[in-house]
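Bug report (template v2)

What were you trying to do?
Predict the complex of my protein with 2'-deoxyuridine.

What happened?
Run completed; filing so the output is reviewed.

Input:
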Amino acid sequence: MTQDDDFLTGRIARIPVPDHDADWERLTTQARIAMTRAYVPYSDYPVGAAALLEDGSVISGCNVENASYGLTLCAECTMIGALQMAGGGKIVAFTCVNRQGEYITPCGRCRQLLLEFSAETMHVRTAQGATTLDALLPQSFGPRDLEINTMETR
Ligand SMILES: O=c1ccn([C@H]2C[C@H](O)[C@@H](CO)O2)c(=O)[nH]1
């Protein structure tokens, strides 16, 4: 097993925030793999999301649509559910891609979902490059305002 395989399966500790294109590329690979699991009979727009957690593990998700269109779960939603089911954790880096492998930025609701499980320095890779969740969701209201530690709630 190569170091890349270890990264993809979340078995090795990583630096807190990807500094290098190669680190983002590995995370994006996980998002692309997740995208292939999407259930998108209505939009035909598959999305995959992947997050690197503080402990070095990687969690991913795909969008899951519904005949009642508005009930669609974005890839970020299923990823956050998977994160909690896997024992919780804080996200230090996140990325999201479409079928073409292009970076897309999370919708408004999903920015708030991500905030709930974010490390304070959480970075997001967008088509414009790496940025912070704070930049995508300025003046936010989240668990830190309620002095809730997301790791202590389970
Ligand atoms: O960040 C995003 C943006 C869109 N979608 C999904 C929702 C819907 O299934 C499809 C088209 O909007 O893309 C996501 O999963 N994540």
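What did the reviewer find?
The helical segments are 3-8, 21-35, 75-85, 108-116, 133-136. The chain has one domain: 3-152.
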